[in-house]
Amino acid sequence: MKDLNKTVELLWGKLEVWGEQGVLMLPNIFVAIILLIVTFYVAGFIRGWLEKFINRFSHSAALNNLVLTLLYIGMLMVGFFFVLNVLNLDRVVISLLAGVGILGLALGFAFQDIAANFISGVIIAVQKPFGVGDNIETNDYFGTIERITLRTIDIRQVTGELVKLPNKMVFENPLTNFSVYGTRRIDLEVGISYGEDLERVQQVVIEALEDVKNRVKTKAVEVMYDSFGDSSINFKARFWVSYSRQVDYVGAKSDAIIRIKKAFDANDILIPFPIRTLDFGIKGGETLTEQLQAMNVSVKDGQALGNNGK
Q: Which of 96, 185, 304, 307 has CA 20 to 30 A from 194's CA?
């Protein structure tokens, strides 16, 4: 019974001390609450003002949101540390800072790939090597960019599939942007017969491609002979087209093939079929005719012997 009374007295004494300290801390608590409210208000006001300001210099929504969020969290943390100081909780501030450092180090090791994609996304947002709507080819994928985030790039392939590529893969590997200049050159390979007048063919092809679909008129059509093939002389017809979508490229290429075929038909220019020559002279240099004649003689001799036997 004495032990119980002693325990109750100790507990009551502790509560009295805490109560006295709480009463003494009431002004500090009131100031801390006011400071916390002001911190949220000021942080929100500054974020709204910075959002209008930063949009003038950066058109990347993902990067803008990242910067604004980091600044907002930073201002809240500063205000929160002031609140802890007002409440005489300096040791808690030091412990929190140490805990944040250790936690950040642990998360850095645990999420290396996510961190790499995030950093790559920030660099891409700053450098802006491409934008939404551009046609690009990277990592064996070709298509139109539909969305850029700080973690992935969404590419809609020409066959309709949506590919989400991690920013790290895009940042570390070669990338071709077909939309950056708004034009693209088409190299069309064609073969003609060895019997054709090459200069005449050259002129016919140039005239046929003058009005091809989407052609850039400021750049001339070029027809350059390229090689001697097995059954044809090969050349490349080169011309530039306006390019914003992949259909601009394939449509112009298809139109050029149609025009060249019609021009060749109208001018009696031959596109030869592949030709193969078979050599049967494999026996001591004898030709096929000689071997057939020898076979005929052998057959006739055999028939004569058969008749004599009868």
A: 185
- Two tokens, residue 143: 């298509």
For the chain, the straight-line distance linking the first and the last C-alpha, in angstroms and rounded, comes to: 146
Provide CB contacts within 8 A for 117, sequence distance 6+: 150, 151, 152, 166, 167, 168
Q: Are 80 and 72 in contact (CB under 8 A)?
A: no
Query: What is the per-residue pLDDT across 41-65, written as a single tens digit (0 to 9) for each?
Result: 888 888 888 777 776 666 666 667 7
For the chain, list the domains and their CATH numbers. 21-95 (no CATH), 130-177 (2.30.30.60), 183-266 (3.30.70.100)
Write down the pLDDT at residue 9: 63
